[in-house]
Amino acid sequence: MRDFWLPVRVYLEDTDAQGVVYNASFFRFMERARTEWLRAREIDHGEIDQEHGVGFVLTSVEAQFRAPGRLGDMLAVGARLDEITGARAVFAQQVRRGSQDGELLVDGKAEVACIDTSSGKARRWPENILERLNG
């Protein structure tokens, strides 16, 4: 799978009083990158619920914080699908300063499950969604 990179600017709301990025802000940045990765494959959260009755839920997330982000930084937030099985997908993610070749700030992994939005239970990926995920 090809890497997807989303540019993100660090704003005051993302930082503490010293201008250092909150750890939780990095999780929001990574969520945005996964969402835009899906959009690039024509998968929209609202549409898949309406069309297929499924949704994506985060089941686990891991992060290693390597260096701080700072107020005003331009970040490159990466997402890559590493594994997909019946009802789960695993994304490798990174946050880098400046560009995808910049200093590594966060190295992470996110596991996402496909659920039936009516029951809230896990279910297999619909075939046309699976094709787009693998595309």
Short overview:
25% of the residues lie in helices and 39% in strands. The chain is of the alpha+beta class and 135 residues long.
Give the tags:
Thiol Ester Dehydrase, Chain A; 135 residues
Present the secondary structure layout:
Blueprint lengths: L3 E6 L13 H18 L4 H8 L1 E12 L8 E11 L3 E10 L6 E13 L10 H8 L1
Antiparallel strand pairs: 1-3, 2-5, 3-4, 4-5
Largest sheet: 5 strands, antiparallel
* CATH class division: Alpha Beta
Q: Strand order, biggest sheet?
A: 1-3-4-5-2
Mean pLDDT over the residues = 95
- Annotated CATH homologous superfamily: Hotdog Thioesterase
Q: Work out the strand percent.
A: 35-45%
In the residues, how many domains can be counted? 1
Shape type: elongated
Could you state the order of secondary-structure elements as H and E?
A: EHHEEEEH
C-alpha end-to-end distance? 8 Å
Secondary-structure content class: alpha+beta
Instruction: Give the tally of β-strands.
Output: 5
**Tally of helical segments:** 3
Radius of gyration: 16 Å
CATH architecture label name: Roll
Helix content: 25-40%
Query: Uncertain segments of ≥5 residues (pLDDT<50)?
Result: none
CATH topology, which one?
Thiol Ester Dehydrase, Chain A
